Every structure is written in structure tokens, then in C-alpha cells.
Amino acid sequence: DKSGVRLSDSYIEERDRILNDLEAQIARAEEVPWALRGLYRVGLSIAKIIVPPILGMFASTAKDVKEGIDAVTTGEALKIEIKRDDDWWMPVLKQFGFPDSTVKAIASIMPEIQTGPVMLRPLPGILMMVGLLGRLGAIVSGEPAKDLMRRYHPNVPSPGEILRTSFIDPSRHEAVVKALQQGGYTADDIELMYVANYALYSEEHIRALYFRGALTEEQANNRLSEQGYTSTRIEELKQGWKVIPGIQDLVMMQAKEAFEPALISKYGLGAEEPTDIYEWTRKLGLSDEW
Questions:
Q1: Which of 23, 75, 219, 283 could form an S-S bond across to 215 if both were Cys, CB 3.0 to 4.6 Å?
Q2: Conformation bin of residue 103: beta by default, left when phi > 0, alpha when psi is -120 to 50
Q3: At how many degrees (to 10) do helices 231-238 and 217-226 cross?
Q4: Are 185 and 193 in contact (CB under 8 A)?
């Protein structure tokens, strides 16, 4: 045997029977649905590879059990003749394409593993094979898995990904609703999501529109309530809307009144208000007084 384990005739017959059965199943792969055909063939082909090593591991365990039973009985040998070479792991590891450095590293610890509890001795090999087959399966099943998803379980876009499509291109609204329904959303759910995704004015835009006369005070309050502000907080917020001149302007005005009263009086700077600009300063939130 390639694994280095000498098996009895009964083991060889059982192994050959299993391999022949796998060959027959591979030949019938055309009867399997197309989407699963690739996975079916890959699984059977991998099974053909791992059957001999697994039988070898069980044979190795059987030898240990045999020796233990012989030690506590009259010495009559079991009727199965099995002999395991100490380096039987080497060809098994190489068969799966492990590099020489990995093979040597694993083989170096095998003597300690083989002197451990009988039932744990095959465990390292089983774990390595399971890990290797898992990686191989993930690779070879990629395309069939994608085909199955496309056929039977296509991904549905999330609401956040497609809701705005209706606002950008209203002609596609029905397509968006259909996609959301495929995701399990009811008509009421979809309506609520649309309401929640309507674009709202920012607080700064509401303030600007209010001072420019585009919104009445009641309308401005409604827009702020859409932002989540309560009536109390709306009134508090609006206290900060009115513009107060900057500190530099305030200091300059105070300084001129204190140090240049003669010039102010001579040129009549305080006698006439610049009412022609009031229309624009009001729209910026600056009071007539300022």
C-alpha cells in the first residue's frame, strides 16, 4: 500500500470495493442536476484520494488494539495480520502535496504521537485531512455555489442601497418597491421607509429661509420639529438665530463714540440711519437697531 501499511486481504477487498463503488458513482454524475454536478464529481474524486489513507489509519489503530488485547489474553493472536511501518505518514503527507519542510516537521513529532493513547493516534491525520478537504471544497465549490445562489437565492438589495433610486429616477419607483417586497417588506413598511428617507432642511437652511421670508414662523417651527426638536427646544434654538455684531465691530463703535464725537457731530454720522440696507440686513438676521 502507498501509505506503508500492510493490510490483510479483507482490508484490501473492502478498500477495492469502496473505490469501485466510487468509480461507478462518478460515472453516473450526468444523472445529477447540472448545478450540483461539479460538487458531486469533486466530492467523489476527493473521497477516492482519502479512502486509502483513512483505511491505513484504522489499520494502524487496529494493530495497537491487537497488541493490547494480546497483552492481557492468553497470547493467541488476532486473525488479522497488520504491520505498520514507522514512517507510513511520509507518503500520506506527500500525496496531499505538503512541502518537504512541512512533512519533516510533522514526521518529527509522530513518534511521540504514536506512543500516546491508542484512540488518539489517528486524530492528527484526520484533522489535517479535514482541514485540507475543507479548503479544497471551498475553492472548487465556488462557481457552483454562486450558480445556486443566482438560481434559488439571489441577494436582495437593502433599503439603504436602493430607496434613493425613487427620488433620483421616479420612473423606477415600481422596480424599487418590487425589490423591497422580495426582501419581505410589506407595503406599510415600505411607505414608512420612504417617509423616513425624505431629505430634510438643515437647521441653517431653515434659519436662512425664515429670515428671507420664504417660511413663516409656524412653517419654520414645523421644519424644526421634523428634525426632532420639541417645542421648548425650538424656542430656545431660535434665540441664537438673531445676529449680533462681532466683538471687533462693537469695540470700534464704542471707541468712535468715545474718541470722535466732534467728527460724528460735524458730519452728521448719527443723524440719519442707512435705511436703504435694512431690507438686506434683516434677511441676514441683523436687527434695525444694530
A1: 219
A2: alpha
A3: 120
A4: yes
